[in-house]
Amino acid sequence: MTVRVCVVDTTFARVDMGGLAVRELQRLIPGVRVFRRTVPGLKDVPVEVLRMVEEYGCDAGLALGWVGGSPVDKYTYLVYSMALQLVQLEKRIHVVDVTVHEDEAAGEEELYRVAVDRVRKHVYNLYLLLMRPGELVRMAGTGRRQGGPDVGPLRRP
Amino acid sequence: MTVRVCVVDTTFARVDMGGLAVRELQRLIPGVRVFRRTVPGLKDVPVEVLRMVEEYGCDAGLALGWVGGSPVDKYTYLVYSMALQLVQLEKRIHVVDVTVHEDEAAGEEELYRVAVDRVRKHVYNLYLLLMRPGELVRMAGTGRRQGGPDVGPLRRP
Amino acid sequence: MTVRVCVVDTTFARVDMGGLAVRELQRLIPGVRVFRRTVPGLKDVPVEVLRMVEEYGCDAGLALGWVGGSPVDKYTYLVYSMALQLVQLEKRIHVVDVTVHEDEAAGEEELYRVAVDRVRKHVYNLYLLLMRPGELVRMAGTGRRQGGPDVGPLRRP
Amino acid sequence: MTVRVCVVDTTFARVDMGGLAVRELQRLIPGVRVFRRTVPGLKDVPVEVLRMVEEYGCDAGLALGWVGGSPVDKYTYLVYSMALQLVQLEKRIHVVDVTVHEDEAAGEEELYRVAVDRVRKHVYNLYLLLMRPGELVRMAGTGRRQGGPDVGPLRRP
Amino acid sequence: MTVRVCVVDTTFARVDMGGLAVRELQRLIPGVRVFRRTVPGLKDVPVEVLRMVEEYGCDAGLALGWVGGSPVDKYTYLVYSMALQLVQLEKRIHVVDVTVHEDEAAGEEELYRVAVDRVRKHVYNLYLLLMRPGELVRMAGTGRRQGGPDVGPLRRP
To answer: What is the CA radius of gyration of chain B?
Structure first.
């Protein structure tokens, strides 16, 4: 059966996260049907995901947010992220919540790399959730990170 | 079919955000039907939006909030913004959440300009969401900002 | 038709906010039916409002809270205020959320005046919401404040 | 008719808050039926209250929490307290939310006294809510405190 | 009747919390049926728990989260933890919420020990909730801690 995934990103973001995600999804899941929309900002994402899930019968979603650096922006992140939980709980599907925070990198080059790495790895995570859940169990507790290198498991003392 | 939009602003605000939004909506969407209400403050907005959406069968809403500068005001913003998410998720429509924060500008003149710019651009965003969603996809990741100049996309390193 | 309003205040408050609100409501809306209850503290208010709205078929409510000055008290305010949003969204009615914060005034005399001014003005706001919504639209963006003097609209630069 | 109350406390607490609450309830409400459970920590309380309310048809509940002193503990308090609001709003009953914060007293003796005083007074509050709501109205705005002495009403300036 | 428990942990964690939890559950509850899944991170846990509870008819769940040390990570914890409350309240079952915070230990060895101790003790707590609730009442107010030594009850002054 064809896997159906919706992707929602923003015009607020400074990297075309949605375009990258669509390409990665198509590379990883041959035959996947991807439905993509772009909304202005973070707070417009959850309802767009919900609408697309219902309109296209998606099996999962990808929410791609870009968060400013001020304290108010962090509250907005909190609201956005909680609303995405509500969408997931109502529809009983995974909506992988990918956010890049403008203040998490030292400069613009690093921020670009963080964004690209995080999108790629989260798309791969979504692929595992949908197609190979057993593989995730084998990776439990191994310190995977998105946006930078994995930190690995703690050694047993 | 006629587009129906509700607009809710506050008497707490220091700029007539609702009046400006109504004019911009009518300029951008000929034949739009706009339903406007004003409430005292931020916390009165979400239920008013919900009531209007149900009373007039709106396709989308515009919530125009003005937030004070104290930490308690920021909690109030959080509550208001979360409640607007609930309205959107219940009704499956976009309610663009526009807020001006009293402490985000250096002086009153700048604050005025921030408010006007933000309302105008968010009304345009709502127009795109309703009428030209494909245009938003073309703008994905281009660093659009409301309240000040766009910052543009990050260069690929 | 008779307007029905419920009023809930607390024994934690240091001013009889509920008594004042009842008198102001009766002065502003002749023939109003007011249903009043007092609960111990902030977190007991939302469910009491919900119970009264359902028991007496209220058209609106007034929640009168008194908030301590510690960070934990502010979290409690957040929880209380979010729960009041849920009540409003479920019942589709306005419940004007009036809070006095113990740390917002320099001394006890000023705090008393803040509380009285805020209750009076919010009761007037509720009156406008119920009886004269068009008047609120005329007041949009005029910088109204409750608890102190209005700050007025920003001048157009 | 017999009043039915559920009491939920934790093994995380350092005072047997539940035992004290049960004794106080039985002293204040002759013939009361009290249903008591203990759970490990704060986040286990709300669902336990909900289960007991439904299993035993309780008229009200008492949630007895003990909160650590770190910032993360305060977030946990926020989550716990919001979930208790949801329980109250769903069941339309009061669940008095009693919390002791490990960092609110100077030493262990004082913390013990805070806990005991707060439980006693909140049980009394629950008794008033259930049996003598009119008495609470007479106490409106009188500055009652739980965990320490009342502060009294503000004087009219 | 066979007890059914679901366990969800993450690849973000640096200790195989899920594997440990499964072994402990099987040791404590002979004949228990454990259903285990691993997801990428904290925000993927709640919907996975909900899906497993419904798919396998679980009597309880164990959510095993690993939280980073930045302020944004703490907001993510808040969102995750609130969503787990919603799952519990919807399904009327306990989902014990176990989190390890990367910044709560002095070094990696200590963090490993905190994680192992916390998982073990919370699995034991879940066992008590399911099989021996009366035992928990006997432990009320005794200052139990997970992740480190118990602190014990306060002495009566």
So the answer is: 16
- Chain C touches chain E, with at least 3 Cβ pairs below 8 Å, answer no
Alpha-carbon radius of gyration of chain E: 16
- pTM comes to 0.98
Q: Do D89 and C46 touch (CB under 8 A)?
A: yes
Domain boundaries, chain D: 4-138
The shortest C-alpha distance from C7 to chain B (Å) reads 16
Q: How confident is the model at residue B1 (pLDDT cuts 50, 70, 90)?
A: confident
Strands of C33-39's sheet in order across: C33-39, C4-10, C60-67, C95-101
Question: Where would I find the beta strands (DSSP E) of A102-146?
Answer: none
Q: One-letter amino acid identity for E129?
A: L
E112 → closest Cβ in A140, A146, A156: A156
The residue written with tokens 């807020």 in the block is: B99
If one counts every other C-beta atom within 10 angstroms of the C-beta of residue A23, the result is 14
CA distance B72 to C68: 12
Tokens 């919540």, located at residue: A97
Q: Residue D157 pLDDT more than 90?
A: no
How does residue A8 score in pLDDT terms, banded at 50, 70 and 90?
Answer: very high
Chain A nearest-CA distance from E79, in A, is 5
Residues from A contacting B (CB-CB < 8 Å) are 9-19, 36-41, 43-44, 46-48, 50-51, 54, 71-72, 75-76, 78-80, 82-83, 86-87, 90, 108-109, 111-113, 115
Of B17, B83, B115, the CB nearest to C89: B83
Q: How many CB atoms lie within 10 A of CB C135?
A: 13
Tell me which residue of B153, B126, B150 sits closest to B141, measured CA to CA: B153
Distance CA E110, CA A154 (A): 10
Using a CB-CB cut-off of 8 Å, the residues of chain A touching E41 are 146
The length of chain E in residues reads 157
Q: Are A59 and A93 in contact (CB under 8 A)?
A: yes
**Strand intervals (E) in chain A:** 4-10, 33-39, 60-67, 95-101
The confidence score (pLDDT) of residue D86 equals: 98
CA distance B12 to C153: 9
Share of chain C above pLDDT 70, in %: 100
**pLDDT at res. A157:** 85
Q: What are the pLDDT digits (tens) for B40-71?
A: 999 999 999 999 999 999 999 999 999 999 99
- Class (C level, CATH) for E4-138: alpha beta
Q: In what order do the strands lie in the sheet with A4-10?
A: A33-39, A4-10, A60-67, A95-101
pLDDT tens digits along D95-147: 999 999 999 999 999 999 999 999 999 999 999 999 999 999 999 999 999 99
ipTM of the complex: 0.97
